Amino acid sequence: MRPECIQAVTQAIGRSLTQAEIQGIENRVRRNMKQLSHTDPAWQSKTAADRLNEAATKSAKDLVAEADLKKKRVALTILAHDRIESYMKRFPGQPLEGLDRLLAFSSDGKSGIQSIESATRAIRDDALSNMLDVIDVTKGKFMGLFQDEAGNLALVRELHGQDSGNAAAKVAAKQFADTAEQLRQRFNRSGGDVGQLDDWAMPRDHSQIKVSKDQAKWVGDHLKWANRAKYMNEDGTPMNDQQLTEFLNHAWQTLATGGTNKMEPGNVAGNGMRANRGSESRQIHYKDAESFIAAQQAYGDKNLLELLIGHIDRAARDISLVEALGPNPNNQMRYFLDAGQKATDEMRPKDATSTAKQRKKIEYLYEEVAGTREPPASAAIANGFDTYRALNVASRLGSAVITSVTDQGTLGLTASMNGMPVMKVFENELRMLNPADATDRRLAQRAGLGLNQMIGSLNRWGADGLGTTEQISGRVAKFSQTAASKVMQVSGMNAMTAGAQRAFGAVMMDTIGDMSRRFQTIASMDPADSKRLLGQGVTETDWAVWRLAQPEDWRGSGDTVLTSGSIYRIPDADLVQLARQLKTTPQRLKDQAATKLLGTVLDETNMAIIEPGAREKAFMHGGVQRGTVKGEMTRSFWQFKSFSIAMMMRHFKRAMAQETGWGKAGYMAALMASTTVLGGMAIQLNEIASGRDPKNMLDDGVLGVPGLRFGAAAFLKGGSLGLYGDFLFSNQTQMGTSFVASIFGPIAGDIDSIANLKGSATEGDVDKVGGNLVRLLKSHTPAANLWYTKAATDHMIFHQLQEYFSPGYLRNMRRRARKDFGQQFWWEPGEATPDRGPSLGAAVGGR
Fold first, then answer.
1. What is the pTM (predicted TM-score) of this model?
2. Domain span at residue 80?
């Protein structure tokens, strides 16, 4: 900066400038010259003096805007601080308990606040509900088994402003653009600073592994694909080839190293304001859709749907964090963790050790909720174990839909606890599963219900890492991940889960809508209903907004269905007076009320149809880094146990929250009775699907009490621990796995199976190696365990192979079924066709 300029600025502000301030002003002017060169078509024809004057004028305006934003952020931080401090005081003697409940959903109904986790899920699913055409265009044909490449390419062209000639893609592109813009504006209303870039079309993906392979090729490719009009020097003149090549080499260093090239030794990373996330300039600019597509195919890992949904996921998480914790959530959380721990230690110094453990658990929970977990220590190790776990899902959960019959128990119980008509939930479930009419399903999807299954998520099975290719690379890994997702679809598991979730959510929205017509305030409602809503964080303000919304008529599914969409359709004029009283805006009132509604419904839906959340994930994986052998072995240990963990953590906590001893006992009795009966049904259905007659439910093999052994197995099955019910009949599962191996998860079971391949035959010294090896291979063959084909594939393929490699193997199988499990086969092992149908009388001791 020239001396005369420094003097002019000094006179304007009334004080001397520091060297850092001088340098900052110079840098700002340079940045604005570059930006104006992108947006002003006449920029290159202007004189140097005019360019400098315009850049300086814009810099002055930016400084004023930044000062205003800084003041706004200070105010938002103070408000968030006071709000969190006040909430923590609701738990006298346990301030850290308040932080725990603020972060994640608690099923006991005593939080009195909507958690950040719940808000994130609500914002995300509400956004996705506005993008159904995007999902339709990108998820592919035949239940998503085959990607619709033409549709994907058309959507990318539309997102980049090019006419694809595809009407569906045009609609989908507008949906995504509108949704992304709404999320950007909501984020900025809470102190964010994300500008609207004229050339941002959609998120981008660069695989560190692919990019790092060949620097020269990556730079050369991007020289061809670059939008040269977006690459300017500091004075606003276009970069030449040499300058752009140098710029791209620096960009390659950042992508290939994962950003470690920007680290400064001694500086702590990751403490930037969450409100600034997304304000960084997007440095890679492509000249057209074809260039973007070519770059994604060459250097990306994610498919189009994953890219778009990933953007929505991140935006929803950032919004919920800044709305609850202020513009800098990390610093705010660290402050209150320190304050809570200090206060607790001062009250109970003898409990300092347990308080420190409680703090550590909350830190793990925050990592899950905020998405701040460390990246894998080794991508290769993480990818290898991800591939293995994905194969386990694809090969072992083909019959999980049978076990899901136990969902009906928690579905009915949760509906009853929420004052909903239980039979209407079951009636709506049939509507949602009607293959001939998708009207009800589409209405529910547009309300944000049952969307995880629509996009192929495996979260219900604790396999959130398998739903995307974010950490997965290589053909085998991608195949296993895709196979896991598709097996859940073709087995009917996704449809059954989504149908139950949509039915429950629809009836709950209808129930809430009906109550909002009948009661002016929450306080005037039935005490049980009032207590339940207040416990979920619904306020009188939210209720006032809900009452202004016009519920929707979903034909037979409900005629007073209150949705987030109906809330957003409230005219601003109807909310002006309330907004003025609360010193806020109509839009913020709508945002809060819509998020409270959908978050409340989704929380209870996840009680009715269990999906593990942040609390369960933190319990299982907290403090264990991905990409290490220890970390991946721990995750493998917990595979297929997350559902049971969630069942116990959520419903036991809700049972213990009942006010009386009889209430606690009644809740547990209802839960255990319903899930045990349905668990018994699931056992018998699985036996029939496997070619065996039903188990004898009156077997008196334990303590001489008829039915005790089967009842215990049904109880375990009802809690998704049916595998361990086999040990009530034998010292091995029907798949030949020992108790210890089963306890430690599929990986331990596989190690046990490999170690015992050379086991001796029970009779006649029959060599079982070949047969056991076939069984091991079958247990890792995708779709081999599909409930509607496994009896046929077992008898026509795998039994034949087992008998071929180990003659006498099937004879021993039949003997073990009779001896250990008291069963006969309605479809004899090795026979191409069955001789008879299943003997249903075997279930009560008949033949």
1. 0.87
2. 21-88
